[in-house]
Design goal:
Layout: E1 3-9, H1 13-24, E2 30-32, E3 35-41, E4 44-50, E5 57-64, H2 68-80, E6 86-93, E7 96-104, E8 110-119
Parallel strand pairs: 1-4, 5-8
Antiparallel strand pairs: 1-5, 2-3, 3-4, 6-7, 7-8
Length: 149
């Protein structure tokens, strides 16, 4: 079963956590100094926010899947339609290790399809300091490799 994913860049993490906790009637399931995530069941969504120097607003959208087979199915649909996708295997970002594919829609919105494998103690393997990985979460161009789940 797939879970819709939304990731927003925010300017004030604490104010945003307070807002979304009230909106969702739930505290974050993951809370770090630069990141928070809610794994909601109604609606079934993985909603994440981060404060890492990116421009505030929508960072990317996506689908979290439960298996690599579901992940491959999404990528096969993109390939069949001759749409670009970028594969990242065993990548680290947003305190998680994942297999994923990235694509960008015609408006330039980044879409991530990912299967989370495990939690990790840092935002990603390359950068663990707040602000150093501002461009981590979504590809800015179809040929650029990036990360984030």
């Amino acid at each position: 079963m797939k879970r819709f994913h939304v990731h927003l860049a925010v300017t004030d993490l604490n104010a945003s956590i307070r807002y979304y906790s009230a909106l969702f009637a739930s505290e974050p399931s993951v809370l770090k100094e630069d990141y928070a995530k809610w794994m909601l069941e109604d609606p079934r969504v993985n909603f994440a926010i981060s404060q890492r120097g990116a421009r505030p607003g929508l960072d990317h959208l996506g689908f979290q899947v439960e298996s690599d087979e579901e992940l491959d199915e999404i990528n096969q649909r993109l390939a069949a339609a001759e749409l670009p996708s970028i594969e990242e295997s065993n990548t680290s970002c947003c305190y998680s290790r994942s297999n994923k594919y990235w694509s960008t829609d015609p408006q330039g919105v980044a879409w991530e399809a990912f299967h989370s494998l495990s939690s990790i103690p840092t935002f990603n393997d390359k950068f663990s300091v707040v602000g150093e990985a501002a461009a981590c979460c979504s590809p800015k161009r179809p040929a650029e490799k990036t990360c984030c789940s």
